[in-house]
Amino acid sequence: MTVPVDHRFLILADGQFGPMSSKTANSCLRYFPERIVGVFDRIEAGKTVQDVLGFGGTIPVVGDFALGLSLGGGASAVLVGIAPAGGQLPEEWRGWLKLAIEQKLEVWSGLHTFITDDPELGGLARRLGVRILDARKPPAHLPIADGRAGEVDAYVAHAVGSDCNVGKMTAMLEVRNALVRQGRKARFVATGQTGIFIEGWGTAVDAVVADFIAGAAEDLVLKAAQDADIVLVEGQGSLIHPGYSGVTLGLLHGSMPRGLILCHQPSREYIGDYHGREPWVKIPPLSDLVRIYEDAARPVLPTKVLGICLNTFDLDAAAARRAVTAAVAETGLPAADPVRFDSAPLADAIARAATEWHQSR
Amino acid sequence: MTVPVDHRFLILADGQFGPMSSKTANSCLRYFPERIVGVFDRIEAGKTVQDVLGFGGTIPVVGDFALGLSLGGGASAVLVGIAPAGGQLPEEWRGWLKLAIEQKLEVWSGLHTFITDDPELGGLARRLGVRILDARKPPAHLPIADGRAGEVDAYVAHAVGSDCNVGKMTAMLEVRNALVRQGRKARFVATGQTGIFIEGWGTAVDAVVADFIAGAAEDLVLKAAQDADIVLVEGQGSLIHPGYSGVTLGLLHGSMPRGLILCHQPSREYIGDYHGREPWVKIPPLSDLVRIYEDAARPVLPTKVLGICLNTFDLDAAAARRAVTAAVAETGLPAADPVRFDSAPLADAIARAATEWHQSR
Asked: What is the reported pTM?
């Protein structure tokens, strides 16, 4: 599978570029600033991304779309980084996207309205052979999961978590990078929008019809395993999350991992998506979470938590070190904050488990 | 909430009426034959439903649509009981459905293509104020579940199971009927197509976008609780089903039941939807299943399995009795086959738990 991870993106965020108003754009600027030539927004034009977001360095914000396309030696793709009000494509966007497609630039979008399905833009792209990547659009034909992910020749590991937004994607990306540096054929499987933008392929499993969650996960694992020895499946949600647990369990059963990385933010005591109400679902201790995930997976395919990934960004250095030490002591497993400290404990745990599994077959 | 459960249906099954080819029609004929005036199929016309399916008695199969509408004193609704090849509405169907709508008959459909969205038929129905019930169509605006199902004034019970197709819907319908006979304000909540056809409302939770499984369940519980003291939520799939477990967990967390009925077919040893491959996922003992469901629910809302519902249709009477006795001995809970024997053990267990819960508030 060839993935175009070398794009130079112009981000379309016209009229909405800001810390709270352009979530998709901001994720991309955080995770792959080196691939972004500029941001198009007529309101913030003239500033840098750093000026607007507080991170992102000297990436320019421009107010002229054609100029934006020419930045950094020329953009190779346009990334839609905001959602237009009402969900419909504004007429002006239409002109800009048409211009990009006519110049054979790919269009990547996280909109709920799929650009592929737009008669004018989708039709133009098909005629010109230009790819449109609608990150939220499920594949047309998903299977009902039937265990084929358990039959691949690659070792499958999966990130699970105490909650949403605790670093599951980052954990797997950091581990993938470390394993690739060690010479392993490791592959990251994106299951959410940002991961899809980072890798250029994947399926937003929370956007598929409920019957096909596990099937979507299986489909991704089969694809990734074609040219990898280790497949690292991004996680979503949490088995104890009242809103999203179904996605989490479908992903766990469909991807059939042999090993898990359990992700957690040590400072978080309660499931965090319910700010509108009293703290409600308390996050149990790590050792309970290890059991909850292993128990849930077992009937379909037994699996083991191999390591604990901690997101300590909001702790001081000493508290972060203590959290890592405490996680090791509590679970008897390797633990790390792969961003702040080192991904080696997690990468090594997966590498070791993968080697043992490959040798045992 | 007013539900039209007194319809007289003509079932549209033209060209496909048969034991293996008209699943939706057959479910309806099995569950509410008393509401069906006839089946329209030009191939089997002249026979009875009994002739074609082996059950269903003297309900006639007719080859003239207008004649069908006039059967039994006049149909009040048309129920689409088959899926046309290719998913598109054939031109002939269009004429028939138009005729029905013009006569102010409701149209109920389990098609993946929604009749509501058909410009001609949907438009005509809206102009005439005729309801079209697309059983698979999710509501337009579903919430992300946020725990409101746990705050209703009704006692919520939910059917869960060892597998698909073990009698979860039937269990709750039988219990509902028993509780209503006892004078309780009990309400059945349909979460799948057949249940929706039986009750006239509900949401097929396996057809919603994955992020909204729990939200769809919450939405249904809130609606049902408006005029019930006991809400009985139909289950889907199984927590150990490799393909559908996500739907099951979302439904469990979203509906926030205080009590569960665990449904099982004693003769089934393995998850049954995988006939194409070796027996794979072994169904654990009932006592393990009790623990699996209680453990899965606990982080969101602790719940208890109140009784075991057995589907013994494929056992002889002595073996069926033994299965019930064995389930009681193994779990210490009431057990019953509510269709073959008596729903009282399950209905009483729920009534008792509901009374205690109402008194404790």
From this structure: 0.93
